[in-house]
Design a protein that fits this description.
By secondary structure, this protein is an alpha+beta fold. It has two domains: about 120 residues, no CATH class; about 140 residues, Arc Repressor Mutant, subunit A (Orthogonal Bundle), CATH 1.10.10. It has ten helices and eight strands. The strands form three sheets. It has a three-stranded antiparallel β-sheet. It has a three-stranded mixed β-sheet with strand order 6-8-7, with helices on one face. Strand 7 and strand 8 form a beta hairpin. Helix 6 runs parallel beside helix 7, helix 6 packs across helix 9 and helix 7 packs across helix 8. The radius of gyration is 22 Å and the shape is globular.
Amino acid sequence: MAKHRRALTDQEREQRQAQQRELVRASIEQLRSSDGWRSYLKARARFRSYSPRNVLMILAQHETAERVAGFRAWLELGYCVTRGSTAIKIWAPCPPTKKQLQAWRDAGADPDAKPRTHWRLASVFAQDQVAELPPPAQPAPLAVPIAEIRGDSHEDCIAGLAVLAGEIGYTVTFTDTGRADGVCSAANKQIRVAERLEANGRLAALIHELAHALVAEDEAAPKLDYAQGELVAESVAFACCQTVGLDTAANSIPYLASWAENASLEVLEQTAALTSRLAERIEARLLADAAASHPVDQELVDAPEPVAA
C-alpha cells in the first residue's frame, strides 16, 4: 500500500524554512576565521562541481567530508552507509517531471507557465560514514593522489594557461621578478612569473596572477580591496592546484584570511562565489591539459550534485 505524506501546516512549514535559513547562515558564518576560510578552500577542491553554498553547508555539518553521495549512490559505488550516521543536508535540484512537462505541453506550452526546477534539502553521506560492501562488490577508490609542490611533475599544464591568458588579452613571460613570485599588470596586459621557480612553483604563481587578470573580466565580481584581491587570487591558486593533485598548502594563505573576521556575511558569500567562478574557468583548462599525464578520477572530482527523487 502506498504511503502518503501528511501535508505540513503553515506553522510547521515556517519552522522548517527557519531551520533551513539558519543552516545556510551558520555555514557562511564559518568563513569569518582564517581556519574557516582555509577549510572552505580545501572542501571546495574536493567538491569542485558543487555550488559554493553547498560546499559551505557540507563543511559546516561534516568538516571531515572529502566526498559525499546519496544512500543509493554509495551502494552503486560499493559502499553502505553505516548504521547511526547523521545525514548531511545540501540543496538539490528538483527538475519538473515528465508528467508535469507533458501536461504543460498539452495545455499549450505557454512559456510563462512552464514548470521550473525548484530546490529542496536532500540527504547525503560522507566517505567516513560508509563501509565497503563484501565481495563480489568492488568498491571504487576514494582518494586522489597529491604531488609535492617542488619539481616539474605538472610542467605540461603551464602552456595551456598561457593560452587562456592570451584569450583575455594578456601575455605571459618567465623572467626576473625580484622578490615576487609573479606580477600581473592590468595596464599593459602582462603577467610575469619568476623564472627562478621550479616548474610546479611557476604553475602555482601563474594561476595566482591569472586569477588577478580574470577578476577584471568577471562582471559580477564585487569591488575588492588589496587584501581581498590577494585572498581571492591565492585561494584560486590553492583550489586549482588541489584539483590537479599539486599540494601548495605550505605556500598558500598564511595570513590573508584575517580580513574575513570582520567582513559581512554578504561579502563573504560573494567572495567565495567569485573564487569558485574563477577557479572553474582555470580548472577546465588544467584538467584538459593534465588528463593524459596526470589522470584524475573524474567521478571523484566531478561528481554531480545529487538530484532529489
